């Protein structure tokens, strides 16, 4: 009998929240390797090169930042544009598997408006030319811009770079992305850097399964929001025989893999600090499982920069930032969206102090500002 033949159960917002937190490893830190956690999450957003380190710290037991740096240096993890054409940190295996499937979404982010301004540029020629340059040696952004301007003079170089990034999987090479170090972006093709080809064909079913395992239960719109792809309903319909079906409180259909955790809605949720651009607050069409509509509006109006957020009882209740304080000193500043209870405040201070010790060893000052100043 098909699993979907029974009347779907309704999952409350709190039940969705606890299921989501469990899959995002935010109910309890796990004793896993950084490689295993990055793979489980199908990548971590990495527009800010240091953000994945906070993302792993808040999810892993005894996380050592050098573990992730070593993965990048050993080419076991890479940073490149993937979901929604935004920079993600993924394992080498997932780079090969997911990039061909996500390519249409990356190309869609370029859009017809850009191609209208690149009149006379053949996409296939752009891809072949760019690959030839990068096969010779890694290239910096400035080098690629000069080469593109020389090949297609008179066109907007920044748009040519955007189009090239959509056509070719450009990996950002270390030292960019290493803990405590940085550098201007230098690119190689994923195939060259990883010494092997991408997957031979897109696999949207694999993509959907991976998403549900880390972000579900979820609707078709949720999967499309996370991936940047469209027309995924047919893919999910093709998987129905192996999926569970639920609805949310609004009657929206949610699909899920059978063996994923769905804890009791009353399961305690500890305070957690999420990184800037953390996938947990950006990967659903309906994000009420993690942040209220009011707080989402406050969060999304910061010039497209998503700050670090603070989860209290499983939901976003404020934002945080690290501030420099004089010579070599630092403090963590937390701005709650609403007043915290005494116990909540104590837990925020304790978890914030632990995060600050990770970010700036020796620092321990956590300042909680007045509610509503964010």
Which descriptors would you attach to this protein?
single chain; 374 residues; alpha+beta; five-stranded mixed β-sheet; three-stranded mixed β-sheet; globular
Write a brief structural summary.
The protein has 374 residues and is of the alpha+beta class.
Largest sheet, spatial ordering of strands: 10-11-12-13-14
Mean pLDDT: 94
What does the radius of gyration come to? 21 Å
**Biggest beta sheet summary:** 5 strands, mixed
Measured distance between first and last alpha carbons: 52 Å
Order of helical and strand elements = EHHEHHEEHHEHHEEHHHHEEEHEEEHE
Strand content: 15-25%
- The number of distinct β-strands equals 14
What overall form do the CA principal axes indicate? globular
Tally of separate helices: 14
Structural class of the helix and strand makeup? alpha+beta
Please give the share of residues in helix: 40-55%
Low-confidence stretches: none
Describe the model.
There is one protein chain. The chain has helices spanning 13-23, 34-40, 51-57, 65-73, 92-117, 123-136, 141-151, 157-167, 190-193, 204-215, 220-227, 233-238, 293-299, 342-359, and strands at residues 9-10, 44-45, 77-81, 87-91, 139-140, 170-172, 186-189, 244-247, 253-256, 272-274, 308-312, 315-324, 330-336, 365-368. It starts with 8 loop residues before the first strand and ends in a 6-residue tail after the last strand. 40% of the residues lie in helices and 16% in strands. The model has no long low-confidence stretch (mean pLDDT 94). It is of the alpha+beta class. It has a five-stranded mixed sheet, with helices on one face. The radius of gyration is 21 Å and the shape is globular. Helix 5 (92-117) packs antiparallel against helix 8 (157-167) and helix 7 crosses helix 8. It is built from 14 helices and 14 strands.
């Amino acid at each position: 009998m098909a699993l979907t033949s029974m009347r779907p159960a309704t999952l409350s917002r709190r039940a969705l929240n606890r299921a989501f937190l469990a899959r995002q490893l935010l109910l309890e830190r796990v004793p896993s390797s950084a490689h295993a956690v990055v793979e489980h999450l199908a990548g971590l957003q990495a527009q800010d090169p240091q953000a994945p380190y906070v993302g792993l710290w808040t999810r892993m037991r005894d996380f050592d930042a050098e573990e992730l740096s070593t993965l990048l240096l050993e080419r076991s993890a890479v940073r490149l544009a993937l979901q929604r054409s935004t920079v993600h940190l993924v394992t080498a295996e997932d780079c090969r598997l997911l990039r061909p499937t996500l390519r249409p979404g990356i190309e869609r982010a370029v859009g017809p408006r850009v191609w209208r301004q690149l009149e006379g540029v053949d996409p296939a020629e752009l891809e072949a030319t760019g690959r030839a340059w990068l096969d010779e040696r890694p290239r910096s952004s400035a080098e690629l811009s000069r080469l593109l301007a020389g090949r297609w003079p008179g066109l907007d170089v920044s748009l040519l770079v955007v189009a090239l990034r959509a056509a070719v999987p450009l990996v950002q090479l270390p030292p960019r992305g290493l803990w405590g170090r940085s550098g201007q972006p230098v690119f190689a093709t994923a195939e060259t850097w990883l010494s092997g080809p991408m997957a031979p064909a897109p696999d949207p079913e694999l993509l959907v399964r991976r998403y549900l395992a880390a972000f579900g239960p979820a609707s078709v719109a949720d999967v499309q929001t996370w991936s940047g792809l469209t027309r995924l309903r047919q893919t999910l319909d093709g998987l129905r025989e192996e999926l569970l079906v639920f609805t949310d409180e609004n009657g929206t259909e949610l699909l899920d893999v059978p063996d994923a955790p769905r804890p009791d809605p009353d399961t305690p949720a500890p305070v957690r600090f999420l990184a800037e651009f953390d996938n947990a607050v950006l990967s659903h069409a309906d994000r009420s499982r993690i942040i209220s509509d009011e707080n989402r509006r406050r969060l999304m109006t910061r010039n497209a920069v998503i700050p670090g957020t603070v989860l209290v009882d499983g939901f976003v209740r404020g934002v945080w930032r690290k501030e420099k304080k004089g010579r070599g000193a630092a403090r963590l500043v937390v701005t709650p969206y609403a007043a915290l209870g005494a116990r909540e405040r104590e837990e925020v201070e304790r978890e914030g102090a632990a995060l600050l010790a990770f970010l700036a060893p020796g620092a321990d000052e956590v300042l909680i500002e007045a509610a509503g100043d964010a």
